[in-house]
Amino acid sequence: MKKTLQIPEDFQYLNPGTEVTLTNCDREAVQFIDRIQEGIWVFVLAGTGVDGLSLQPAAVSANINQIAGMSPSTFMARPLSDVLGWQLLRLAREVFESNQEIPLQRFSQSFPWNRKVRFDLALHRAGEHLVLEWFTEEFEAPHLVDSLLEMAIGIEQPAELYHEACRVLKRALHVDQAILYRFDNNYNGEALAEAREEHLQAYKGLWFPDSDIPLPARIVMAKRPVGLVQNHSKEGQALVFREPSKIPVDLSRAVGRAPSVMCSRYYCNMGVHGAMVGSLLHRQRLWGFFSLWKYNKPLRLGLRTLRELRMFCQNFMELAHELNERVNRNHILMLKHRHEVLLEHMLDAVDIDGAMNEVAHLSEMIPSDGAVLISPERLVTSGLCPPEPVLRALTLWLQEHHGHLPVYFHRRLAAVFPPAQEVVDQAAGVLALRLGRRKAAYLMWFRGEITQKIKWAGKPVKVADLQDPDKRLMPRASFSLWVEQVRGFSAPWQTYEIDLALALRDEMVMVLHELGNHELVGLLSRANEARRAKERLLGNVSHDLRTPIHGILANAELLEQELENPELLEMTADIVSSSVLLTRLLNDLLDQARLDAGHVSLKPSSFRVPDLEKKVRAALLGLTKKTKVPLAFRWLGSFDEPVWMDADRVVQILNNLISNAMKHSPSGEHVDVAMQLNGTDQASRQLVMNIADAGKGIAPEERGKVLEAFHQSGAALHEKTNGVGLGLSIVRGLLQIMNGRLEIDESDRGGALMRVTLPVPPMPHKGGAPPKAKETRLKEIPSLAGYRLLVAEDNKVNQRVMSRLLSRTGCDFDIVTDGREAVTMALKNNYDLYVFDIQMPNLHGDTAIKELRVMDVPAAKVPALAVTAFSADEDRRWFLDCGFDGFLAKPIRLASFVALVLETLKKP
């Protein structure tokens, strides 16, 4: 089971026997409930023996006499072969030994002493136990998936899909109410849709805090695809243990376990008799769930129906994601077209005043009730906006409290800016873009209030702002029904809306500046074309250059393993170092393009600053030998505590500044690198890095220019420096997103001194020792004997590289040239790992793995690695979403490839 929830490190369940109350129900050990629902029979086997793989009875539900005609103790005393039969016993051992997941897989079984009565059986491994659940045999079940797919034809909007899915479930399962819940990033929830009997209270539109579905319940939801409460008023049957056990039985994924204390009280309070839950997971995250309620009767369902609901939820999630992506894509295209029209009209204006008049159409750019462009000199409004005094006061408040942010948004403005309470019908929510640092100038959109009638499961003690991550709705004083009219909220601001607003703001500022100078009227069209050309270059460079570099580098590294002649070894090492340098220059180009497009994001982690020295020295080893300019690191002060930063970006800044210093230092001199951590507390710490060389220095008039892309100082133009003038420009871009600064001065030896100051964010939690860096040089090829790999690669050179490398590992392997062949071979043979290139003829690698993952065959569960020339973060996320377990971007260092193969093969 892949991890789907972020569980705090200090989270602890209640100790066994602790009374569950409203104040501690968020830590209720719901997975260890030892009672079983009526009409379901549970048998627990425990692993024993030296290897822990032999099975013996551990516990059975007290109602086993209903189907076995004997007491629990007598049942557990009988040999397993008599109870289960040899065929089922063999299957149970296979499931336990392989630790495989069989989510609600249905098996039909009868007991040896009564062959006439048959039962449906589900089984799964839970830690050191194997859990078997018997259900009364169900001969027919509703075809939920067929109904879903038939209903989805022609649906264009997600809300329609949500509503129709609830209708299908209510009608097919004969429940009184079907509700679709969705979680936000903080696990507050919203009832998106429902289907109900007319006399029942509506739930659609309800927002509820994360405490309504506590973390223990969400953990169970993420593990168990379907939950069932047949009759909450029935206490259920006890789980009878053969002998006292020190290891509790985890029934997280057992359908038959009785509901928890809080769950029973909740359903009792709501008047619900029986209920069923279908979990919805998207990209390995708990997206939401279907909740199905029966008010006046128990909910009796068999295993066939539960399996149908599980498959219904899986298919619904795929349809919902695809539909949302399509709608968002169309919406973004429409808004982009509106942006272009607005900017074209602004460019057609003869002066700034004329251009500002066009801004009156701003409310059409982002779905809103009104928009305003405000500065000390101007006020341009569109649609419904607050009066000017409120707008001026809001502008000053934003500048004072959030002036450091380029964008600020809130869907309950009056909670943080009280004057907005008087204009809540016009400005319940705001999306504001800062247009300048020195003066209070903002571009703002407003959304009016949306009132909601919310039905809480109990009276709220305190209502908190859902956007504040440090506040939550407090535990309920009781579980009595509470209906509340919620006011003051606007519709939420979507992520793509915020991104589009930022892009529009940048282009508007550019247009207004150009019009202010009465020149370059055609700048917008050229800028758009340049941006599109840059994006095309980024894609072409990423794929077309990385693939041949990979062939050169991989073959050279393989040659190093075979050659013994010192001269040939030196030549091969030159090829490797030159390929690494070419890769670095390529990465510089790509990083600059991504920085310009705003596509670079930080990935902080816990590490110790002194560990960076080894990475820097390894990266610059070739340049150190070539320039004969060594590095001298100095560590000023204490570095005992780890820091929380993006280590790779810090190393990139150091590499760019140090390599620049080495290139401009005379041979025999050294580059001095002084590192220091300032600040005594977590909130004020700064990492200061001073890089000083002994070169000719940088003239004061050149210091502002050296940070520009493709710029090289006058002295550098006459020196043999390897680079394209992007190093310092990339440093500037990285410092901007890391909120750092760079100062250029003269060093004590007359050269240049680069001083970088980076704020160190507070550590989010206590981290352990940082992981050690992986080896990048292939010292010895490890053995993969006993494994069989399937490689899909269309490039002939890379095919030969793979063949040579894998032949040396001792594994069996097959190489095919496209994705269609890969799918065919995967279904025909048994493999331990797939290694697929992405861009191939006939069928791409990502499409091939998606086809395999949806099949109900053993080949669908084989781990897979993506080896590709696409290297952006969004590409990596896409490949993992498609079903790959790992990712390597070309050009690949063979040590990294072999390490990832071993790591993936050894995963349980």
TrEMBL record:
EC class of the enzyme, as a word: transferase
Pfam families: HATPase_c, HisKA, PAS_2, PHY, Response_reg
Catalysed reactions, as listed in the record: ATP + protein L-histidine = ADP + protein N-phospho-L-histidine
Boundaries of every Phytochrome chromophore attachment site domain copy: 157-318
Enzyme Commission number, as recorded: 2.7.13.3
GO biological process: detection of visible light; regulation of DNA-templated transcription
Record flagged with keyword Kinase: yes
Key words, A-Z: Chromophore, Kinase, Phosphoprotein, Photoreceptor protein, Receptor, Sensory transduction, Transferase
InterPro entries per the UniProt record, alphabetical: CheY-like_superfamily (IPR011006), GAF-like_dom_sf (IPR029016), HATPase_C_sf (IPR036890), HATPase_dom (IPR003594), His_kinase_dom (IPR005467), HisK_dim/P_dom (IPR003661), HisK_dim/P_sf (IPR036097), PAS-like_dom_sf (IPR035965)
Domain of life according to the entry: Bacteria
PTM sites of type 4-aspartylphosphate: D837
Domain Response regulatory intervals: 788-905
GO molecular function annotations of the record: phosphorelay sensor kinase activity; photoreceptor activity
Residues in Histidine kinase domain copies: 540-762
Family: In the N-terminal section; belongs to the phytochrome family.
Protein's name according to its UniProt entry: histidine kinase
